[in-house]
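Many introductory courses stop at the sequence. We go one step further.
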Amino acid sequence: MLKKKSINLLFVIGGLIFTFNLKAHEMWIEPVKYQVARNQTIYAHEKVGQNFKGNQYSYLNTSYEKLDITINNKTRPVKSRIGDIPAIHEVTEEEGLAIISAVSTVSDIRYQTWGKFESFIKSKELDWVLVKHKERGLPSQGFTEAYQRFPKALLKVGSGKGKDKALGMRLEWVIETNPYTTPRTENGVIRARLLWKGKPLKYTHVGVFNKNDKQFIKTSLSTDKNGMVEIPQANGGEFLINAVQMIKPSEKVRNETGAVWESLWASVTYFID
């Protein structure tokens, strides 16, 4: 229940639309501008969809467990207000590499057909889940999956100097090459590491989406034994990197949602000139 009656109908409708569209798993943070001056407002959309295309929503505090900005190793909550569009409004008096990070609340989806679940699992190259599903004697329809998202966005504020860092999220990308202070070259790469509970997650499917004024490119890669992946920087433009981890739900999640699986989604966005 919303506490303030002054929130207008548009924002309420926006919240309802958000609820109905949670069936789209993929969530990312997409800044309106990836490069801003110190003391200039950072605007960023919360988007849900796939293939770097999605709907954008107004800010609802019930959608997040955490929504933070980190710059120069200092982390604080983002000061968005209910109904804000874009969902993220923030100003920083410091300059450097700014990290917008979020931990969503846990949501769930019910699969009425095996085909939809199988299609999702295969698209993320998680075929072992299908085998385990049958080994556990789980139903082929009418079952529930819980899911939680962990998006990050890197922005250049002023000089853009600094490093991305692990923020303690269960599943998390850490971009080890600053995209704003590393010159773009034909063979240059951005190194990114995927962490699961703070440790490198090896041999995991990675989706890379890159769009600029001329083209959209979708690439499938995999982390190596150190949880590392190298993203070519030659095309420039906006980049979205994502990965999914599937686990058996905890007793708490299982009791609250009835889920037989839980998926964790990590994404990160950045821009290369």
